[in-house]
Amino acid sequence: MSAGRRALSLAVLAAGFGAIIAGVVTLHAPGRAPADAGVLPPLVPSATPAAPRTSAAPDGPADIFPAPARVVIAALKVDAPVDPAGVTHGGELGIPEDPSRLGWWIGSAQPGEPRGTVLIAGHVDTRADGPGALFRLEDLPMGAAIQVRADGRTQQYRAVARRSYVKRRLPADLFSTGTEPRLALITCGGTFRDGTYSHNVVVYAEPVR
């Protein structure tokens, strides 16, 4: 993908992410979006170049960062498989229809990379299947442990912030590959009306080194 097409796809995704939840029903307690909590992880200035996806020690093989395969959040009793997810023609993130599965945006970072946001999203609920894996994401305590497992490896994260964004107003830096390493888990929340929720709920987490 050319740089121009990539930039376009990022803009479309940021504008269309508000529609990631389809066919939902108000299983989630309707009401106001949850209050913000915690401190957002720091960002790297845009002039700082992002690290490559592979790096090699002088006398060792290249370190290949695998795609995430599972997310485990003990505090919420979540152990969910993760599938790669691209952007649909409508500019939405094509996460799995099964709400028990999560989607990792293939344009984002991979666990263990020295830069960028690992962006994973899921349905809060669906009409057919009920609550999703991230049904209680807005209740996750700050400081809670999050594991992202990938190809036999486990990257540990610690939840540091929660933010609610009005649909279609997610911050552009969520889609940047030049941030400090972090994880962003995204689902829906807020008020349910006319077949959709009013907000996206984002939990930010930092890697435990």
Q: Which bin fits the share of residues in helices? A: under 10%
Sheet with the most strands, sense and barrel status: 8 strands, mixed, barrel
Number of helices: 1
Query: In sequence order, what are the helices and strands, one letter per element?
Result: HEEEEEEEEEEEEE
Strand runs, count:
13
Shape: globular
Multimerization status: single chain
SS class: mainly beta
Low-pLDDT residue intervals, each spanning 5 or more residues: 1-12, 18-28, 54-62
The whole-angstrom Rg is 16 Å
Q: Which strands sit side by side, in order, in the main sheet?
A: 4-5-6-7-12-13-11-10
Distance between the termini: 32 Å
Beta-strand fraction estimate: 35-45%
What is the arithmetic mean of pLDDT?
80
Ordered list of secondary-structure elements with their pairings:
Elements: H1 3-16, E1 37-38, E2 54-56, E3 62-64, E4 70-73, E5 78-85, E6 102-105, E7 117-121, E8 125-126, E9 130-131, E10 145-150, E11 153-166, E12 182-193, E13 196-207
Parallel strand pairs: 5-6, 7-12
Antiparallel strand pairs: 1-11, 2-3, 4-5, 4-10, 6-7, 8-9, 10-11, 11-13, 12-13
List keywords for this structure.
two-stranded antiparallel sheet; 209 residues; mainly beta; 1 helix; single chain
Summarize the structure.
The protein is mainly β and 209 residues long.
Structural description of this entry:
With 209 residues, the chain is mainly beta. It has one helix and 13 strands, in the order H-E-E-E-E-E-E-E-E-E-E-E-E-E. The protein has one helix spanning 3-16; strands at residues 37-38, 54-56, 62-64, 70-73, 78-85, 102-105, 117-121, 125-126, 130-131, 145-150, 153-166, 182-193, 196-207. The protein has an eight-stranded mixed beta barrel with strand order 4-5-6-7-12-13-11-10. Strands 2-3 form a two-stranded antiparallel sheet. Strand 8 (125-126) and strand 9 form a beta hairpin. Residues 1-12, 18-28 and 54-62 have low confidence and may be disordered.
